[in-house]
Amino acid sequence: xxxxxxxxxxxxxxxxxxxxxxxxxxxxxxxxxxxxxxxxxxxxxxxxxxxxxxxxxxxxxxxxxxxxxxxxxxxxxxxxxxxxxxxxxxxxxxxxxxxxxxxxxxxxxxxxxxxxxxxxxxxxxxxxxxxxxxxxxxxxxxxxxxxxxxxxxxxxxxxxxxxxxxxxxxxxxxxxxxxxxxxxxxxxxxxxxxxxxxxxx
Amino acid sequence: xxxxxxxxxxxxxxxxxxxxxxxxxxxxxxxxxxxxxxxxxxxxxxxxxxxxxxxxxxxxxxxxxxxxxxxxxxxxxxxxxxxxxxxxxxxxxxxxxx
Lengths: 201, 98
Description:
Chain A is an all-alpha fold. Chain A has ten helices and no strands.
């Protein structure tokens, strides 16, 4: 950004993206106060680095890249508590977990639909909790692609990784996310009575 | 069927191929040809249709979980920050300007 359009252009970008930045910051830090700090610091950093934005169409990944880099280099270091994700996706190779495969009962005809019932019962807070339970690596791709609607290329530019890595990371992240939702449903007692549940009991 | 492409132009793909491309398809990351092929398959395959629909609805729910209600403290903080950057007296970003 150059010349007199600097201020107007920057304000426009910040105004358009602040809600998304805060929403993502909240899931990354899992803490409203830290999320506010992260967004404010991101905006200050972005203003300082405004000359590096050469293509206005890329403002979104540019801004998110500044925030994720700042989060990774600063906020993540501060976190003393271990990540929660080990509880969800350890080394058991369950990143291929599929809610649909757990829920779908092909012997039921179209009027019986346990997978649809499951999704209908999901609350926003259930999904937020499942996202927050993911590792930083997985949480970032889920936030960018699934929540913010980034293309794989924009997510790759934001995270400075190849598109193929976005794709594979997203696949594993979604498996973990679905597994987290499954566990929550089980704990809340809202899991449908599939054959498997009956066997487990 | 809204697909305007002639059915006999579309390559037949099997369920495994649909599942391999499932998330690329839902994320809008497949090309037009692949998109036609998948649509053509799920129009005729109840099993794949059920899976695609489930993942599509779940993806929508995840998208809808987006939380972007800005705290007033952050709006004011950013307004102050931008004022210090030389933006003058601006309204706090994110506040309803209506």
